Each structure stands twice: as C-alpha cells, then as structure tokens.
Amino acid sequence: MTLPVSYQELECVYQRLLISSVRCLAVSAAKSGEGVSLMVDALAKRSASVGKKVLVVDFNLFHPRIGADDWHWSNGQAPQPRTMDDDSIWYLPAPLDAASRLRLKEPGQLEALVAQWTAEFDLVLFDCAAQQLNNQSNLPPSRVMAAADGVVICYLAGVTASCQLQSCCQQLTQDGVNIVGVVMNDRFNPSLKLELIRNLQKFSHRWPKLTTWFTKKVYDSQLLSLRY
User: What is the Cα–Cα distance from 138 to 97, expressed in whole angstroms?
Assistant: First the structure.
C-alpha cells in the first residue's frame, strides 16, 4: 500500500515540516503496525517530487526493512547510502551490529551523523520502531527520535487506545523529543459520515429513492466532514 503524493493529509504533514524548518524527521508510533513505514515512504516521495534529495534511514532494529548482506554498519560507521527506484531517494540500512548500537547510544554520536546527513541531503527521514519496543539492551527508539529535529507519531485510531498514545507522547517529551505532530490512521476508525452512509444502505432495498436522497445530503454535509 502506498499514499499518492497529492493526498491531502500527507500535504498537511509536509507543509508542517516546511513551517517548522525540520530537516531531520523521525517517524514512530506507540505500537507496532500503525503505518510508520507507509508515512516515511510517502513523505520521501512527496519531497522527491519537487526535486529534493531525501535520505531514509532504517532505525527499526526490531523489524528492519532495508538492507543487504554486503551493506551494513560497522562500529557506528554508516555505509554509503544507496538508491533504489528513485534517484532522488537514498537509503541506509538499520545498524544491527552490537558495536554500532552501543556506539550510537553515546551522547553526540547520532547528532554528529544528523549534521553530516543534513549537509548532504535536503530531508532526512528516520523510520523508527514503536515506542513500546524501547529496550535498553538495544538502541532505544527514543534515543533516535531525540537526535532528530522533530518527530511525527502515527496513531491507528480504533485499535490503539488514546491513553496509550497520550502515555507515549508524555514519555517522549520527558526524553527530550520534539513532537511536531500526530498523524491519525483511520483505517479501522471510519468517520461519522461514512458510518451514516453505510447504515443508510440497509434501507435501500425498501426505500431506494429516499435512501439515495438522504445519502446525498449526508455526503454533501460540511458539518459531517469535520474531524475532531
């Protein structure tokens, strides 16, 4: 699944980055499976569509998605970035070796890499593991997020409890993370408008014309288009 670069919600996130002057953005979530990689890829393509040079760094050490046998970190030193389908988007694999994870925990190490990457790329994106996977024996996601200019949290509404999201944001703020926004994934949380339209279809076989009329009224309602 991919998001088109013209997607309205994606554009809102992208414009927020421009307003906030964020050059290095980390994307994470409270729990796994909330669309972090989807958002990272969409932002990378949106930035590349206007000629920007983008670097995507895989920092999901629990479920890495980028990498190859001959392409890996060594003692905290990143390998050369590689392109895949788009020459404007470059990638780095996750630092899976123990020496790199240990070195990157040290103060200033990640920050130095961020300074190096932002000097070469217009936008750097960190694909981070979920906050619930914080593990001190590994490279904690919160440590990676703290090195970025800002963080976007993905939230799968209807699956992840709002209290889990709130707890995640509070903990990250205490860890010195700059949260610039929360992106709500409505895959399992349809809007009131869509729920009304779905339920109206139950009456279409008995009152087809009336159902069509009500459905159009609901669909055109500006009030029901608002999200809270």
Answer: 10
Name all domains of the chain by residue range, CATH numbers in brackets. Answer: 8-185 (3.40.50.300), 192-225 (no CATH)
Which residues share a beta bridge with 128?
A: 59
Alpha helices (H) along 34-76: 36-48
- With a cut of 60, say whether residue 226 has pLDDT above it: no
Burial of 202 (0-12, 13-18, 19+ CB in 10 A): exposed
Task: Please name the helix (run of DSSP H) or strand (run of DSSP E) that holds residue 16, with its range, or none.
Answer: helix 8-20
Q: pLDDT-based confidence at 228, cuts 50/70/90?
A: very low
d(CA 52, CA 23) in angstroms, rounded, equals 11
| Sheet (strand 89-92) strand order | 82-83, 89-92, 54-59, 123-128, 24-29, 150-156, 179-185
User: Residue 9: is its pLDDT beyond 60?
Assistant: yes
Round the average pLDDT of the chain to a whole number and report it. 88
What pLDDT score was predicted for residue 189? 61
Report CA-CA distances (Å) from 155 to 131, 146, 159, 172, 181: 12, 19, 9, 15, 11
Reduced to 3 states (helix: H, G, I; strand: E, B; else coil), residue 96 is coil
Q: How many CB atoms lie within 10 A of CB 224?
A: 17
